[in-house]
Design a protein that fits this description.
Elements lengths: L2 H24 L3 E4 L18 E4 L6 E5 L4 E4 L5 H8 L4 E3 L10 H6 L7 H4 L6 E7 L5 E4 L5 H7 L8 E11 L3 E9 L2 H14 L4 E6 L7 E9 L14 H7 L2 E5 H5 L19 H11 L2 H10 L1 H4 L7 E8 L3 H12 L4 E7 L9 H7 L3 E10 L8 H11 L3 E2 L9 H7 L2 H11 L8 H5 L4
Parallel strand pairs: 1-2
Antiparallel strand pairs: 3-4, 4-8, 5-8, 6-7, 6-8, 9-11, 9-12, 10-11, 10-14, 13-15, 13-16, 14-15
């Protein structure tokens, strides 16, 4: 790390720590304002950002890239678009790159990001070697698997309720300029599941994920990718053409590496489907730069928050993690009771359960492979059926776990059957002894 960059970083961190100490002196609760857009799903009456904000938007720099060690040091506000742009010229990229350009390194740690290299590398947190944090009483603390391992692993999945991340050291992997994609289609869930398990076990691919377009022949698509030095052509899904639709009609494709890593960004997966004209080429031609892309779409959803509040329930936008042994059962239930497509499917290797998962619940996984099944935009207006609740209940029944970025329905008792309350309270006592950050359960259950 260059001396000037190191000194500038220290000055920023000390200013944040001093502000936290002043807030503690005043007895004020705190939430973290990271700048840009939040990737939490907008909810009516949202209280997740209660309390006065500590602005950490200035923590947005790549501090060091060690090419020989394949290691990178970043501030938490660095977006993955900026991080890939900085590392790819060196023939390297982060080992896990979340699929939306505006997701930040800090958000990926706190919010449990995975992607199509997760079958090999785990989640983004699993590729990190060290965190620097400002605690809830204004101390600066460094955590790693060797130094403060309990705190290091508890920061993952804490959603800003334990401390303020100020620096992250992460692992990089070799990368090439292009990605060659092959699409394998299957007629049913069992054959898709068998192929997914086989590909993961063989470990020959650089990227593995899937898109399930429906319940009929050819609707189950396994997407396999490998880095390549050169490509006979490259497709672009940044404007007029739509990536997820291409997986239904193409057998293979070539993309530049950045276009592959952020292939879901233009549609924010397929949220543009909720307003069909956004998928029409004339509309995209005229308005694309103003409305397409995750940052634009999330900003528009924020502007429309008052209109969203008029709905009885917001759309279902959530990731659930199902033990691979139960994937077929989940997909059978999903086809019968949920029926919203596309469904994004990401295999995710977790060789050792995270310590924030309650031991009894982690024991129920009985599999080192979880499968992230991601739902983006199912309307939830049917009287008498709350599909968000149904999905949460089925995930628990099948021994899985869900992200907390959207609506949550757990009772307090059920929540602490899934999350390890003693481990969380121990970390809270050390990292936030004054209780200036929100409690994990209370932050994500405003309806209770």
């Amino acid at each position: 790390m260059a001396h000037d960059e190191n000194e500038a970083h220290r000055a920023k961190v000390e200013a944040i720590a001093a502000e936290v100490r002043e807030r503690v002196r005043r007895g004020e609760p705190i939430h973290i304002q990271k700048g840009g857009v939040h990737h939490f799903v907008p909810l009516p009456g949202d209280r997740r950002f209660a309390g006065r904000a500590v602005d950490i938007s200035g923590l947005d720099q790549v501090l060091d890239i060690d090419v020989g060690a394949a290691r990178c040091v970043v501030e938490p506000g660095v977006t993955f678009a900026a991080l890939v742009a900085a590392t790819l010229p060196h023939g390297l990229v982060p080992a896990v790159v979340p699929e939306l350009e505006g997701i930040t390194a800090g958000g990926a740690v706190a919010g449990c990001s995975v992607e199509s290299m997760s079958f090999r590398h785990g989640g983004f947190h699993d590729t990190c070697a060290e965190y620097e944090v400002v605690t809830g009483d204004g101390r600066v603390l460094v955590c790693s698997p060797e130094l403060e391992p309990e705190l290091f692993h508890m920061i993952h999945g804490s959603y800003g309720t334990l401390a303020i991340l100020t620096r992250i050291t992460l692992r990089l992997v070799p990368a090439k300029r292009h990605v060659h994609l092959r699409y394998r289609r299957f007629d049913d869930a069992p054959s898709f599941d068998a192929a997914l398990r086989s590909v993961v076990a063989e470990g020959q691919e650089d990227f593995v994920d899937g898109i399930i377009h429906g319940e009929g022949p050819g609707d189950f698509v396994l997407c396999l990718g490998r880095f390549v030095d050169a490509a006979p052509y490259t497709s672009s899904y940044r404007w007029l053409d739509i990536d997820y639709q291409s997986t239904r009609r193409r057998d293979e494709d070539y993309l530049t590496t950045p276009d592959y890593l952020f292939r879901y960004d233009t549609e924010c997966h397929w949220l543009t489907r909720t307003l069909p004209p956004l998928e029409w080429k004339p509309v995209r031609l005229l308005l694309g730069k103003h409305v397409l892309g995750s940052e634009n779409l999330i900003r528009w959803s924020k502007r429309l928050e008052r209109l969203l509040a008029l709905r009885r329930r917001p759309d279902v936008v959530v990731d659930v993690f199902i033990p691979a042994r139960n994937l077929r059962t989940f997909l059978r239930w999903y086809a019968a009771d949920f029926r919203f497509y596309p469904l994004w499917v990401v295999p995710y290797r977790v060789p050792v359960p995270y310590p924030w998962v309650a031991r009894e619940h982690a024991a129920r996984f009985r599999d080192v492979l979880l499968v992230d099944c991601a739902v983006y935009g199912k309307r939830n207006t049917e009287p008498g059926r709350d599909f968000s609740q149904l999905l949460e209940d089925k995930t628990y029944e099948l021994d899985g776990i869900k992200t907390l970025i959207s609506r949550n329905h757990h009772s307090r008792e059920r929540f602490w059957q899934i999350y390890d309350e003693p481990a969380y309270r121990a970390a809270k006592a050390r990292l936030d002894p004054e209780g200036v950050f929100a409690d994990l359960y209370d932050k994500f259950h405003p309806e209770r």
